[in-house]
DNA sequence: GTGAAAGCGCTAACAT
DNA sequence: ATGTTAGCGCTTTCAC
């Protein structure tokens, strides 16, 4: 009676052959006679032999583990992204180790150390909001561990990235409102030092320009929470020349705008159109339900993982790749319908 | 110029000592002279030596990886649970590998195979809704891999479990409504064959009994979605002897009930109290915001992970442990305030 | 067609 | 106080 899991050695002893023969037979090596192969394979199946992944890793120096660092797991977007990553990884026989930075720079550093120690063969990162120094990311590269950033990308490190197309997402949403009759569209955004804000603003401005609508700076406000959305909308909607459309930073802000409009007895979407962003759960909970842009978290996750695995499996290819994930328009009830196409 | 990461061998060669001395010096073994120790440690730090976890695992037959199988990652409860697990694991230097079954029995089987192959040292499972056969779980135990179930426990396998206290959560919520003046409380539940429904119903009934309120079977309805909550509430609220309180299966159902009450111009909470369950995001998005029971996902995750690590580190202790995580009452705006305590 | 032996990185008996 | 050796499970030359 032996202890521990069955090894190649055990099989060899039991079958009176050498370990190398067993090893080869298991991989259907044609050098080995068909009879021996069959014998070994039958034995393995019968005794549920499972190769020791640890020993394998030690030899190949590859453990097929991918590390992922996200700011927060309990978040609709990130858990969706992780879900997408999982899907691809499972397909190609990789495992995913998750770490959360909890938006904390120091914890993020520890996450990186952990992953280096675990000798993962690649890392996917969406950086914490508090991270401003990138030495720890560089350390990954110094250890020859490929890194891909997604969503919250790090512009200070030269590597591949996967981002959501904020520019054209915003452009499309604003264009939709214009096509459905809006003439004065307000833009509620996050602080302008963020990359995301700049891209969204450009999308907004370009849509207005395309349709020759005037740009009114007073319609552009910093508001990225439900409360701020509510307050600023209430303010702006009581001015003489009130807007007839709102492009919000996210669904929470949009829900605040909606609240303000309802309180002012303005009809949504007839008098005021509202567009959210993210397609988070809340967008289906409001009444009327929010029109919004889906950021396709699954797709972000899948693409990032695919990019990484490609890089791992073709290390000689050093070209930079940036993927931009198109958002997808979700028209619900806070915007009007498109007029019939010609 | 050598390639690959620095090994003990490299250090030994460079310092003209043996690998065992290096190994010992790195662990501050007192057998080694302080000078040698310092020399080795300084060298290691300077050259950023990192022990090869793979080689270590091969020796110790332990890789400090924990597998987790959840039905769905993009879910408020499960991502919270995972978050809690992560916290504990990180503390004790374990890694977490996530798998999602996507509520699919066959995928769950594959998840289990994957984890066995990866030779994880323990597994945490919340089973898929479609799982009715437990052979794959048994296989984990046959491979000497400790298993803990959480939330969606498997009653067919003899192992430790961590569950949410549905009984007393419901009891507490119903009791709260009674204390704040409700006399006729409806109970909206999921299908009664589920463990969770039975436990909740018992909590509901016992609370009524404690305060000598009559049980009216017509107030107990199957409703576990927003739509069903809306429909059944609308129905029941228009009957002559309408209820003045609702205990819902989850926050979605509760939001449907709220919608119905608002449409019928009933004042919430003055004329109708409503309790949700889960403390999911939506509970803060409704107007008024829902009173609900928090299921403390973090706590579930932490406790499950602690139980597992204890089992891994003390394999000789074979006693069964079941943990019941108390829910916590969250009073928002769909219930009245408690009268002043005496 | 099969076996013996070396080696992946590290540790721990067992020398000296 | 330090070095030598064997071995964790597996693959892969190199022999025969």
UniProtKB/TrEMBL annotation, chains A, B:
Domain HTH lacI-type: 6-60
GO molecular function, one term: sigma factor activity
CDD domains xref list: HTH_LacI, PBP1_LacI_sugar_binding-like
Top-rank lineage group of the source organism: Bacteria
Keyword flag Transport: no
InterPro entries named among the record's database cross-references: HTH_LacI, LacI/GalR-like_sensor, Lambda_DNA-bd_dom_sf, Peripla_BP_I, RNA_pol_sigma_54
Keywords tagged on the record: DNA-binding, Transcription, Transcription regulation
Pfam family, one: Peripla_BP_3
The protein's name in its UniProt record: LacI family transcriptional regulator
Organism annotation: Dysgonomonas hofstadii
Taxonomic classification: Bacteria, Pseudomonadati, Bacteroidota, Bacteroidia, Bacteroidales
